[in-house]
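Re: export button greyed out
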Amino acid sequence: MQLNTGMKVNRITDEVWEIPTSEKSGMLVPARIYGTPGILQSMDQGVFDQVTNVACLPGIQRYALCMPDGHWGYGFPIGGVAAFDVREGVISPGGVGYDVNCGMRLIRTDLTLAEVAPRLPRLMDELFRRVPAGVGAGGSVKLSRSDLNAVMVQGARWCVEQGYGWHRDLERSEEGGCIRVTDPSTVSDQAIGRGISQLGTLGSGNHYLEVQVVSNDRIFDPATAAALGITGQDQIVVMVHCGSRGFGHQVATDYLKVFAKAMRRYGISVNDQQLACAPFRSQEGQDYYAAMNCAANMAFANRQVITHHVREAFTAVFGPSAEELGMELVYDVAHNIAKIERYPEGELLVHRKGATRAFGPGSMELTPEFRETGQPVICGGSMETGSYLLVGTDRAVEETFGSTMHGSGRTMSRAQAKKQVRGEQLQQQMKQHGILVKAVSMSGLAEEAGFAYKNISDVVETVEGAGITKRVAELRPIGNIKG
Amino acid sequence: MSYEFRFLEDVALADIAFEAEGDSIEDLFQGATRALLETMADPQTVGASWNRRIVKMDAALDDLLVEWLSEIVYWKDAAGVVFHEAPLSLTHHNGQWKIEASLIGAPVDHTLQTLRNDVKGITRHLYKVGQNGPLWKATVVVDV
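Workaround output, generated via the alternate export path:
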């Protein structure tokens, strides 16, 4: 098998591959990559270099992991998972990413394709008008400094209390949409300046809001689907992919700088500046953890406000209230975050960067309604190919610190993608395939063309084959809004 | 006095990388600045109704470039603007590099401007600033 690395890669199973500690000086644990042989061969050299760099970080437990949608990132690869002992280990912004709590949200409806299709153009116009997207776009919610402090501490809960959503939305969000360990004093004025006007905005890049359809033949587990409100029969659902916007980006920028200096003080050396880290129990580590959680709460709040505007848009187009349209939240889940979780080794700080928590049925961390199904996992594919709803498994908890894939993963750079197609041309092609696209930036649209990504079905089959997630339903796009 | 920049195809899979070069350090800063402005929006489609004077100092040239580019990203979000140009001058005195610049642009308006990427941050991944023969060069990867 020809791989983009000179390192020895041993087969553990058909979907799990291991790079032993002998392959790089300083590796404390082996690195494990999830993927079929085909996926492994398509991975860029950065994945192998970066996951083995992660394996060198102090306090790492068991394995440095990379999911099958993995690709080159900063410090950690995208798709990277690593758990650190909370007493001896480190915390690293490079293991979380610039977009703290970038994540996915899925909203169900009682509407069908037949009901929505005739009004889809108007629906997309309403969504585009109500959910600001693209460079520098400001949100509709005007926050004072004290409001933003409340968002940092209360996350989506603050939004619901202000009327942007329903209390039961919180029960269907990771951490109830609010992580408790926060301290707004650890957040810089620059982060506040960047984030204060951005609540309820989508951003750009690979962020999107998508109207999707679930057909009966794409439901793989009818009982679990029904328990999550997915009934099929060309049911319409809405997916949201975005994060903490400029607020979280600045938190990452600020603490990478702090940690670069702190590492010298703590005698830590890393193979890549973007792996800058500090002992979790140090002042710098605790400050970043608190600031990162403030940003995570900002992201939960951001997706909550967007949900509110999505519900308003549907009511404006179809008439009945959002409750009458059955617009319940299926789930909201982070894929860029570091969290303390309990495993046989004890309390660990699990970094997931472009990886999703995937707790199985019975996990006491889940609210009761998900203890039979397992935790919903929402994976966004490219805007041309579709997305998946999955659920976590107990095996994920045993093998991958309760983690799985987050999307399809890029195989082509943005610059290359733009050379192959123009945004306007792609928009026309997608329209011919029954997908209406509204985009702020046509060049940004071209960068997100489907051919720039792995086939998400291959990635999903890998995680199902490995037993770390189960397929519930495939979601096919019919309308997409991009920044 | 001149600068050039080009976007790199094979460096940043999910993000954007550029290489800037100039006859002088000041030219290099101008080239890198222009590349960043072009990453966010087409400067030719952006007006000049907003401006901000920026002064920053640092002993290390490479740190100063990251700080300056990060400042541009900050104002993009904090003021909700994109940029037409950013004339700048660079001096070195008592061991400190000093950049004095004007950020000139206009509030974001997708009906008037050709918008491109919402830059999240200036990374230090594969980051390089140095002299290559008579030219100063920098490689910068931005997270989008």
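The mean pLDDT of chain A is 96. The button fix ships in the next patch.
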